[in-house]
Amino acid sequence: MTATGNAPAMAAVRLAHVTRRFGEESGSPVRAVDDVSLTLQRGALTLLMGPSGSGKTTLLSLLGGLLAPSDGTIEVDGTSLASLSPSALSAFRLRRVGFVFQRYRLLEPLSALENIELPLTLAGVRRPASRTRARQLAAAVGLDRRLDARSGSLSGGEQQRVAIARALANDPPVLLADEPTGSLDSHAGQRIIELLHDAAASGAAVLVVSHDTRLMPYADAVLHMEDGRIIDAG
Known about the structure:
Elements (H helix, E strand, L loop, with lengths): L1 E2 L7 E12 L7 E12 L3 E5 L6 H8 L7 E6 L2 E2 L5 H11 E4 L11 H11 L6 H12 L15 H13 L5 E5 L7 H16 L3 E5 L11 E6 L2 E5 L1
Parallel strand pairs: 1-3, 4-9, 4-10, 7-8, 8-9
Antiparallel strand pairs: 2-3, 2-5, 5-6, 10-11
């Protein structure tokens, strides 16, 4: 199954017969992802929908190298994830994959600006370039007036916007987002939708897990997942 956009077809992600099982040690394993083959192209925004428990977040975690498949192969930006050591995989994710987690995963001692800047620092970008980039992203998500606020003092919607800006920091070729508009009001949600669309238009492969139907007009492909399988594409 291939999700394509208007840009020249260049595969950023390839999954071949990927399965992820949990609970094998109990003798009653559950297939959270079941024999999924999928290609995501650069320049395309793909929307992944489906009921809770259908395997969407597990699939996103597999694509981002946060989980290893029980079976099958995953290739991201031309690299097989299975070929990387744990340290190499961490470095690869830092530079090549942006991940927006549903529960944000911000570092509470850091300010909003410092959370956005952190991936740049870890990737070797020094100030003032890293600080300038972080400020630009904060402005893009509407947080330019909350730069110095500690992440723990931010509202859920503000934390979500910090998480999205952080995922975009290193301009990754693959962007994965789990319910990125779930904590946002309509105005902020629309801004984030347009930001994700712009990332795809700039050449990234963007995969968004969401129940937000406002994303559908911006999507180049819509996939539906149920019981661990992708059952339909529109």
